[in-house]
Design goal:
The protein is 46% helix and 14% strand. The protein is built from 12 helices and 9 strands. The N terminus and C terminus are likely disordered.
């Protein structure tokens, strides 16, 4: 057996038992011999392609499976953006194969929408949301330029065309932003513009079995607790076109006594964000010996 925290590639990070448990989901995404395709998807920089979306999802599912084999049931789950699918599986609400079906359909819609819109993302650190919205005037982020991720009180992601975002970055830096970065991800996600391209995704989410979460599920869409199958189906459906309200969801967990977080995925930046949001909380990446995949 390979120790989950020793080696880096996904088919080595996780034990044979974990991989075998997830094999139906891996094959649903890639067919026979899917581990090679999984690795290729994780290391790809084409973040508009459905295969890469599936790779990140499967990584989250494998991390969840490995975690539960060695540790107690978590008190709650939350997913950031694409992570909502793995979180729903971890809460026992949808099956791994259905999660793959949803992610592939969502990814295909994102790919089509991205070609049509050409939108990109800008990360802005150091400004509050009200101040950032003033910079996004005259529409306050309700038109071409939108805040798509409320990650923390001073870290947000804005979507728009690159030329517009470059000017917004200049204004934000003049206004005291600590940093601005154009990100290599599709800018059409978490915007209403995506809806006309997502018919296949909507058809699948309407037909798959969704069960009430057995683990407390905090939605990154409404920023609060979701306890019913109907509510969870709506959260998964809406996350495609609604902003990510990770800030609100994590803050909603604190009054429930949740003060320890494990990021079961390949994005170490989420550990940093959680520590910003909850300075007294403990946050770590699992597995710990992984190279970050920027998704």
């Amino acid at each position: 057996m390979v120790d989950e925290q020793v080696l880096l590639l996904p088919d080595q990070v996780f034990s044979v038992e974990v991989i075998d448990t997830l094999r139906p989901a891996i094959e649903a995404a890639y067919g026979d011999g899917g581990l090679d395709a999984w690795n290729s998807g994780l290391t790809s920089t084409n973040y508009s392609h459905p295969v890469q979306h599936a790779a990140v999802l499967l990584y989250g599912l494998a991390a969840n499976e490995a975690w539960r084999r060695k540790r107690p049931e978590p008190a709650a789950v939350i997913g950031h953006s694409l992570g909502i699918y793995a979180a729903a599986v971890g809460a026992g609400a949808i099956s791994p194969v259905d999660a793959v079906r949803l992610v592939l359909a969502a990814g295909a819609g994102i790919e089509r929408a991205q070609r049509a819109t050409g939108l990109v993302l800008l990360a802005v650190t150091g400004l509050t949301a009200p101040r950032l919205k003033e910079i996004l005037a005259p529409d306050g982020g309700a038109g071409e330029v939108r805040i798509t991720h409320y990650n923390s009180t001073i870290q947000h992601i804005v979507s728009g065309h690159e030329e517009t975002l470059t000017e917004i970055a200049r204004k934000a830096e003049r206004d005291g932003a600590l940093g601005t970065t154009i990100l290599p991800f599709p800018g059409v996600v978490h915007r209403p513009d995506l809806a006309p391209f997502a018919d296949d995704f909507y058809a699948i989410i309407d037909e798959v079995e969704v069960r009430p979460p057995r683990t407390r599920f905090y939605s990154p869409v409404c920023g609060g607790l979701v306890e019913t199958a109907t509510g969870l189906r709506a959260a998964i459906r809406d996350q495609l076109t609604a902003p990510v309200r990770f800030l609100h969801a994590v803050h909603g967990m604190a009054p429930d006594g949740i003060d320890e977080f494990a990021v079961l995925g390949p994005c170490a930046q989420l550990v940093v964000i959680i520590r910003w949001l909850c300075p007294e909380a403990r946050a770590s990446l699992f597995p710990s010996a992984v190279e970050e995949v920027h998704r």
